[in-house]
């Protein structure tokens, strides 16, 4: 019997034999996600043909000799995987290949999230925090929530943190400051090429003083043009280079997202795909990425920001795409 000071929490990762999970298991089991004093019991779900590969991941986790890892359960059974979990990283889904848009994965992937919503509904803790990473992440999260009606819809989120990290990193490089000195870049809308990476409220610390990013960059053409398209297309650029989609950075972003949700975002805004209440004119009842702050395990949309004409057009385009994806997903799930 192993004794820990705090009781371990059960955390599930789906697609656990895949690329992203290979980095994510370490983020979680090392304490980077839930904190250095929180032991974790990992539930690792994949499909039956991947159980052999998954066994290798389990061996490697043991070989890491991680003090916070209380146990590991590899399984192909969703109800076993989701039983009593406090946090769920829903990664398992097909990734896109070169030339595809993420929404091209919808028909193949959305049923996974219907089935997993049903399993979460049955066996997970009612306060489980769910992060959907598998693409198309926003719409998969919506479907998952719809099939888990006993769990509050606020508990279902989609990952746009990778886009936020990309945006922050691009701006820091442009200004020539460490990435930690840029904050409050916003990702609006869908985790797709219609997303709107918005620097208009971002601030940068230069020489100990805070300055708006717009003034520090002082190049409107870049901020409305190359900056936006670089972030929108970064996933495709990584696929073109690696012939596989982002994995290391996706795992880091998933850990950042869940850490901030559990432990709080402090004085920074973070972007999360959440079930929309219609804030900022976004369509209601789609999973839309907003700027949020988090504390005590809850997120809250940042209110009162000004939306320029340019931003309005961008928000409308990404909202329209999400409304269309929702209709398509609901039709697929009916079958
Ligand atoms: N939201 C975001 O920012 C990002 C999302 N992604 C998405 O994450 C997903 C996973 O990517 P990778 O790990 O690179 O893919 P991968 O192909 O390496 O791994 C996916 C794993 O999921 C498993 N899987 C398939 N169906 C499953 C099911 N029903 N239950 C449990 N496991 C299942 C597969 O067997 C495989 O082991 C893809 O959809 C990808 O597009 C990737 C990067 C960033
Ligand atoms: O681009 C992809 O398909 C994988 C992904 O979501 C990303 O890297 O943002």
Topology:
Elements: E1 9-14, H1 19-29, E2 40-45, H2 51-63, E3 69-75, H3 78-82, E4 87-90, H4 106-123, E5 129-132, H5 137-146, E6 156-158, H6 161-175, E7 182-183, E8 186-188, E9 196-198, E10 203-206, E11 209-212, H7 213-217, H8 220-224, H9 226-232, H10 234-242, H11 248-263, E12 270-275, E13 287-295, E14 298-301, H12 309-334
Parallel strand pairs: 1-2, 1-4, 2-3, 4-5, 5-6
Antiparallel strand pairs: 6-12, 7-10, 8-9, 10-11, 12-13, 13-14
Helix pairs in contact: 1-11, 4-5, 4-12, 5-12, 6-9
The structure holds 1,4-dihydronicotinamide adenine dinucleotide (NAI) and oxaloacetate ion.
Residues 14-15, 17-20, 45-47, 50, 91-96, 112, 133-135, 137, 159, 162, 191, 245-247, 250 line the site of 1,4-dihydronicotinamide adenine dinucleotide.
GO molecular function: L-malate dehydrogenase (NAD+) activity
Domain Lactate/malate dehydrogenase C-terminal: 160-331
Domain Lactate/malate dehydrogenase N-terminal: 9-156
